[in-house]
Write the structure tokens for this entry.
Amino acid sequence: MRRGMSAFNLTSVAFGLAFLYLPIVILVIYSFNASRLVGIWGGWSTRWYVELINDRDMLESAWISLRIAFLSATAATVLGTLAAIALVRAGRFRGRILFTGLVYAPLVMPEVITGLALLLLFVAVEVDRGFWTIAIAHTTLTACFVTVVVQGRLLSFDLSLEEAAMDLGCPPLRTFLTVTLPLIAPALASGWMLAFTLSLDDLVIASFTTGPGATTLPIRIYSEVRLGVKPEINAVCTIIIAVVAVGVIAASLFAKLSGGRERAAPIGAQV
Amino acid sequence: MKGALGQERSWARLFIVFVPYAWLAVFFLVPFVIVLKISLSQTAIAQPPYVPVLDPAGGLAALKEFLAGLSFENYALIATDAIYLISYLRSLEIALLSTAILLLIGFPLAYGMTRAPRRWQAVLFMLVVLPFWTSFLIRIYAWINILQRDGLLNQLLLALRIVDTPPGWLSTDTAIYIGIVYSYLPFMVLPIYAALERMDETLLEAAADLGCPRWKAFWLVTLPLALPGVIAGSLLCFIPIVGEFVIPDLLGGSESMMIGQTLWTEFFTNKDWPVASAVAMVLLCLLVVPLVIYQHLQTRELGKGA
């Protein structure tokens, strides 16, 4: 079968990609607009980036968000990997159906529901809300995404490698650490990245579970955006986009180089 | 199935299952029980702002008193006050229509991607995935730049003389649909692409050899094989869109709200936690059927690989 693209195929791909990227490109260009008014182009300038460096509140929020994202992504990678192994390897166990449900439901559950539910839990056990409650909430949500990514890798895993190690007398835990873990490492890395960016991005769940002194970056951006478009926000967004884009592209190149024949499988294919 | 961490070492297996299970039970399952409980409570000017509160030290008498204090008042309010009904219906309508639009745009895009030369496919895949990683909030915000009254869209329309006076795009349903379709497009494209990519191309060759016209082969072979992807993509979009908050809040008007906004307002503005909980419970009930179908698909996918 020849793999030609008809004019229609070409148009739909071009149209789809243009639709996905044009708004982001426009946002990036306008972050360099010298004029404060959005509709008027006042020439190129980096003044909004300079103003940003002096915006203490914004920097503090960014720092809080980064710390939460780092912590929750790390915890979520551990939890999510365990859950993936449980789903793929543990066979039948009591409550498996409920467990599967608990892993997949958070992926599609509307965030307002998850956020409200978690907040009411934190209120019921009377903990002070803030940094840690957001971190726990993000760990719970993003662990499920990690599970999906790692599970995809485990399903395509060649079991004979582990069997060979164990036949040669390697104990199970050591087999896991020396054979399995290095082989699924690229999936763990992309799971961690995904968890990190999801946490950095979350507004709704953080709004519910936050407390005094823990204004994350999305919460701050949201409260500014509600008041209208501001060039400084364009600049913040451009920086975030650049960081995420560089991170994702670097991770996928890395996975391609280290993984060899295994194609880097970013999130999505498995969701 | 056996592996390094298979069934032979039961303590390891117990640990692997127990830790994530316990975490999810505590932080995902238990909270819903609490939501259910509070949806049956009443607002109070207290900390926490609802009654009754169960006193675990009070023993059986306290439990009895607690149970007597529960009521279905909040559900009665939701059933009788038209605001809630309109909100639910509006959310379902927007979710249904935008899922249909997403299919119309997403399917040709995914199909076009699979027809592209092999060496392009990885790049195209990456290009569709990348926005998925980029902040949701930022992508909505990008549209505010474009859709405002003196934004780029109106400048373009004025320059092309399509309109004489700039229309207001923000605070309209059109803006909500644009925002939703834009944000959820990768969720629709990726599962469809995955299904189409797995397809055995010799099937199409066989159809062509037997004299089947291409459109018919598409209809009889490609489409049925892509169906699991289509269903997964549609559910992956439909379920969260029903409860969407950020998009209608930033792009939509204030006169009619989606249910996510209603819940948000009840909670943050009216500080009525019990009604907000009842709104969440009803929303959850509405989503149970699509959620179960989605779970079923995921479990089947898992079984296929194992």
Q: What stands out?
A: Chain B touches chain A through 113 residues (CB under 8 Å).
